Amino acid sequence: MHQLNKLDTKMALLEVKDLKVRVEEREILHGLTLTVNEGEIHAIMGPNGSGKSTLSHVIAGKPGYEVTDGQILFKGEDLLEMAPEERAAKGVFLAFQYPVEIPGVATMTFLRTALNAQRKARGESEYSTPDFLKKVREVSKSLNIPQDMLKRGVNVGFSGGEKKRNEVLQMALFEPSLCILDEMDSGLDIDALRIAADGVNALHSPKRAMVVITHYQRLLNYIVPDIVHVMSKGRVVKSGGKELALELEASGYAQFEDAA
Amino acid sequence: MPAVQETVERVKRIDVDQYRYGFETLIESDKAPKGLSEETVKFISEKKNEPAWMLQWRLEAYRRWLTMTEPTWARVDYPKIDFQDLYYYSAPKPKKTITSLDEIDPEILKTYEKLGIPLREVAMLEGVEPKPGEEDPARRKIAVDAVFDSVSVATTFKAELKKAGVIFMPISEAIREHPELVQKYLGSVVPTSDNFYATLNSAVFSDGSFVYVPPGVRCPMELSTYFRINERNTGQFERTLIIADKGSYVSYLEGCTAPQRDENQLHAAVVELVAHDDAEIKYSTVQNWYPGNSEGKGGIYNFVTKRGDCRGNNSKISWTQVETGSAITWKYPSCILRGDNSRGEFYSIAISNGYQQVDSGTKMIHLGKNTSSRIISKGIAAGKSQNTYRGLVTAHRKATGARNFTACDSLLIGDKCGAHTVPYIEAKNSSATFEHEATTSKISEDVLFYCIQRGLTQEEAVGLVVNGFVKDVLQQLPMEFAVEAQKLISISLEGSVG
Lengths: 260, 498
Known about the structure:
heterodimer, A: globular, B: alpha/beta, 11-stranded mixed β-sheet, 25% helix
């Protein structure tokens, strides 16, 4: 990754070192290395089954994955030692490919419960109801999210676009330092994609890094990455600037199969 | 370890011995001799200074009971009960007339404090009037007729109720002071011959509440009774009778907790509700009796007969229950929709964990014309528990235009528990419209992980999902109880996620 040297003055936010991961006896990641500095936008591209989603799940701490070797540091701390809810409180946010529905739980209630749980874990004071309402109104207004959506059950009956906007809203509200967007474009038409991407772009800041996992280049027309990584068979096989994505679009993933 | 697997592991380790309200108050009590006989029945009647007609009523029930056998159709399994090995009456000993809360045995007050239901708070609430037109739930008054073991030790708010003409007193007092009302209504909804446990209750009932709301009166406050079972090996036989006369309204809240013990305790209550023309009764229960220890030992046997009679036209009876405790629950709060245009409702949350067995549901019996009923049942099974909804909806051949909507949803936590739905539907006329919906689901790994990724602990995630699941029913509870019920749901699920 010598071409990234010019960014090395920035602080490393996420350091994945030689990570090996198994799911039920089958190794999915075979020694993956990746460094994300604060403020950067990374895109991880690769064919189906290359281990992109596994990487995002392991970073977030989803049960069912066994890390057999390597380490993940987040702000210099051992992330794998932390419970998934601690990672959330520390600033790791995963925008899900398929956000779940939670019937009977109003979105507003969910947001407040989650935000206060994170604040409590960080030793900060919990938001009072009026303060929370004020904050959530502010944030949703800035993202053009209708108040009506907040009153409905979490993702219940939401369209694909609404579900993704709900993810963006949470991202804005929780103010994480690392956002991982897992296949954000799946199931979205072009208009919904643009709206969601605008939300993500609005949240990009010098301190906040984004890792955009995607199969297709089209998302990168809207969220422009600083660095593009190509994953194949459980490893990062090539990294480069945003032009790498265009190259992939033109020639496909086949050229990297052998590299893996 | 996958989250649900972890939940299952933790359920295996649950120790319900940590039962929150498992403590015993040391108070001397006045007991009937062990076992059941005509002598026991006479002893109880005498203790209560009952008139001859009441003793006669009890004895008839007792003789009837001798000819009956225990029902076995419910999906519950427990060792045979030796009815001669139980005490049928016990009462706290220090007896003197109480004029204020300060005179109550401090031990009893302490018990209420541990439960988080200090009577003092009730006294403090006295005189706090919400401004006209302002519904401040925290300030709304609750009258507490505290049933401590079998005898009511404190009755508050009597004066204000009296002003409104509402009679709210222990049924033992009502038998002496309002014999004409008691004689007219007692057993008119649940006859002494109704079923094994109701008949047993009729013979030996110790005490309970009596409510009469006169015509056109809207009861000025929620009526609330907190039950405690506090005497080892004492069967509890509460008897409650509520009458809403024409055009009246009353909301009655009942909440229960019990201390832990090793031997099973029998509880067989009977509740009768009568709603006359245009009257409405709302009856809410939060029940959290000792469910037994981690091996399924101990715990309360709860065999209850609750029935409401919509006797008048346009009358309405609504049952709401949150059931989290007891080792065995056998309970079917029902409505007889006798009056034309009458309406019955049943909203239920039944949570079972550990080795608990719940067989609960309702009966909606449509007799009058254009009657309607609604059943919303939410069953949550965790641990090794079994949770059954059993419901009956019938329309008599003259009950034209009868309508029912039933929704039974079950939620499973782990894979060692069971949820069952047993609906019986009988329509004897062609104009009846009955709808039935049922779902069974598990809390999915993905939903839990989604919540956890947003910063919730596993326990908080389960609590959130479950509270969402039961929301439709929680909304039916009066505000004060909704909060308490939400707490209870979390407490009872604490065992299921460690």
